């Protein structure tokens, strides 16, 4: 699902390039069995129409048959760091990502992406050492799709999150996405900040550290956010993009 809104005239004059006229409101994707599709489509529609970023004037819901058997990847271990103010967030993120092989340059540029004025629909791919942007379309980014979780793992995850009072669709979907991304050998780490103005918890994730939640990663009310996947230097980008966008993946315990 993808919901967007065109800017009105007065807002338009402030933006220089044509493509920025459409703003991204929300997007979501999943893997479903045929009998679930009717309900899932309605849920996506409701989400599109009730998003805190406003009312969209275009909602696209694409349904595609997937013939390939999904690859099963492990769910990341979940933890939360103590971060009481957004001033503390950068040092915390820096320490975690540096320890995972992200260079200071890539770190700085990556933070720039997730705090930039213009919110991308997908994620940036960034070389973890040279900080070069690698995604084919830098305006759109790479959209992770065809991902889900098996029912048993979903129940386990929901119970686990409920014990910490964080059993929300937002967290469950983020854990699933981060687990699919982390299972890609050529991705070193992920950094995520929600673009929802009132959602101030972000995360960093790596195969080794797992899914590390960072509360107060941004100021309340900020409409900025995004995702960066730091990739191994000199890797086959087309192959990574194909995995993220097209390979069906089920996250499991
Ligand atoms: N593929 C790639 N990038 C995406 C995708 C996707 N499927 N979905 C979202 N993004 C990018 C895009 O640039 C968005 O602007 C940005 O991420 C944020 O998306 O444990 O809700 O859906 O409490 O706003 C983190 C949960 C929630 C932390 C993240 O992201 C926690 C969230 P949002
Ligand atoms: Mg959002």
Can you offer a commentary on this structure?
With 253 residues, the protein is of the alpha/beta class. 31% of the residues lie in helices and 22% in strands. It has helices at 9-12, 37-49, 86-98, 104-114, 151-163, 169-182, 237-246, and strands at 2-6, 22-27, 58-60, 71-74, 78-80, 123-127, 147-149, 187-193, 202-206, 210-214, 226-231, 249-252. The chain has a six-stranded mixed beta sheet with strand order 5-10-9-8-11-6, sandwiched between helices. It has a three-stranded antiparallel beta sheet with strand order 2-1-3, with helices on one face. A three-stranded parallel beta sheet has the order 4-12-7. Pimeloyl-AMP is lined by residues 27, 29, 119-123, 141-144, 170-171, 174, 177, 192, 194-196, 199, 201-203, 213, 225-227.
Shape: globular
Give the rounded overall mean pLDDT: 94
Order of helices and strands: EHEHEEEHHEEHHEEEEHE
What can be said about the biggest beta sheet? 6 strands, mixed
Question: In order across it, which strands form the biggest sheet?
Answer: 5-10-9-8-11-6
Ligand inventory = pimeloyl-AMP, magnesium ion
- Calculate Rg over CA atoms: 18 Å
Fraction in beta strands: 15-25%
Structural class: alpha/beta
Uncertain residue ranges: none
What is the number of strand segments? Answer: 12
Question: In whole angstroms, how far apart are the ends?
Answer: 26 Å
Secondary structure elements and pairings:
Elements: E1 2-6, H1 9-12, E2 22-27, H2 37-49, E3 58-60, E4 71-74, E5 78-80, H3 86-98, H4 104-114, E6 123-127, E7 147-149, H5 151-163, H6 169-182, E8 187-193, E9 202-206, E10 210-214, E11 226-231, H7 237-246, E12 249-252
Pimeloyl-AMP binds next to helix 6, strand 9 and strand 11.
